[in-house]
Amino acid sequence: MNVNSNIFINKKILIYGLGKSGISTFNFLKKKNKISLFDDNKKITLINKIIKSRFDIIILSPGINKNNCKLKNYLKKNSKIIYTDFDVFKSFYNNKCITITGTNGKSTTSQLIYEILKKQGYDVKLAGNIGYPILSVKNINPKSIFVIEASSYQLEYSKIFNSKYSAILNITPDHLERHKTLKQYIKAKFKLIKNQKTNSIAFVNMYDININKFLKKNFFKSKIIKVNTKLNNRYLLNFKNNYFLSTSNKENLLFVLEIIKRFKINKKLLIKTITKFKGLKYRQQTIYEKNNIKIINDSKSTSYSSSLEALKESNKIYWLIGGIPKKGDKFNLPKTYYKNISGYIFGKNSKKFLSDLKNKIKLKRFSNLEKALNGVCKDIKIDQFNMKTILFSPAAASFDSFKNFEDRGFHFNKIIKKYFNDK
């Protein structure tokens, strides 16, 4: 633990945002500093009291949009002292980190790296956007390796965080309601590589247009390795796991295999770990497969790009879509797949989906998810013989009706049991 000249000791600190990361930051720093807490949704401290106060440091939770919050003017004036929990972590620990970002596949890639290293006997910790705040991790020693999932929100505000190994899996338009432009979104992602030191390595997608454009226009200190995500390697045949048959999961796996080359790995144990990997809940997860019907729970999907691959299945697809659409999101599925898809739009925010998908696929509109699923089940009865896929891949944020994508995914599984309780 680095304590000499640590900027997060004996300071007057404001922690803004009291979700998981904010609370863990408070618990980590409270014995070393004078802490004030503020959250837009909780009446903890009066705004006037905060504005009139002088702080040495402001630690901003990733969920806070500094351009659209109750303290936006105050944050603008004090932008130089804004930090994140990632920065706090880096100031206290000098552990080797593998940090994963990108638009899609971050959680799966992070989880798989974590499981591989753990099975190989490494002391490995999983943290970040995957659901475990980095400052909540316990039992850290100098040999502990951190596998970190990093969102654009976390990277955007970070100032001193850097990672020995970094990966940008892919970049498509996302979170533009926050970043405003695709350029700013890409810039936030690339902060992960920009902050790396000369002895670090960055892994990027060889075929990603947005990544390659940004690489050409900028200089980075770290070594850049372009991962061939279209590689048809015979070695992949060793992993007899249908989970990695999809293009996106195969790309995730290729990143993983490239990254773990930097560690001492037992190949037989590696093959066993990957073969047994089941993926994460609510991410292209097959929850039912019987009587010519397959049901996929892909509640994690919050944009069109994250739904596209599942829409390319050969089965007749009954697509459940709805939620809060992403600003600037575009439906870029090739026309050849349109005839195979029927869309069932649910929820209050249906206008954008109707506009984007009109004259492309057959559409029906419902007030909520359960009614949409009921509509799917009625239509499926008409087609009893062909293979069918019920695809719950909302391509939108969940906050209009649910706490998060996990809550949405759990709710979908619950109502599925009403219609398919023979599982």
Report the total helices: 15
Which architecture of the largest domain does the CATH hierarchy give at level 2?
3-Layer(aba) Sandwich
Can you identify the CATH class of the largest domain? Alpha Beta
Assign the structural class, choosing from mainly alpha, mainly beta, alpha/beta, alpha+beta, or little secondary structure.
alpha/beta
The CATH superfamily title of the largest domain: Mur-like, catalytic domain
- How widely separated are the two ends? 50 Å
Structural summary, described in words:
- There is one protein chain.
- The protein has 423 residues and is an alpha/beta fold.
- It folds into three domains: 12-83, NAD(P)-binding Rossmann-like Domain (Rossmann fold, 3-Layer(aba) Sandwich); 86-276, Mur-like, catalytic domain (UDP-N-acetylmuramoyl-L-alanine:D-glutamate ligase), CATH 3.40.1190.10; 285-419, Mur ligase, C-terminal domain (Protein-Tyrosine Phosphatase, Chain A, Alpha-Beta Complex), CATH 3.90.190.
- It has helices spanning 20-29, 47-52, 72-77, 85-92, 106-119, 152-157, 176-179, 182-194, 209-217, 247-259, 267-276, 304-307, 351-357, 369-382, 405-419; strands at residues 12-16, 34-38, 57-60, 82-83, 97-101, 124-128, 145-149, 165-168, 201-205, 223-227, 285-290, 293-297, 316-322, 341-346, 362-366, 388-392.
- The strands form three sheets. Strands 6-7-5-8-9-10 form a six-stranded parallel sheet, with helices on both faces. It has a six-stranded mixed sheet with strand order 11-12-16-13-14-15, with helices on both faces. Strands 2-1-3-4 form a four-stranded parallel sheet.
- Helix 5 crosses helix 10, helix 5 crosses helix 11 (267-276) and helix 14 (369-382) packs across helix 15.
- The model has no long low-confidence stretch (mean pLDDT 91).
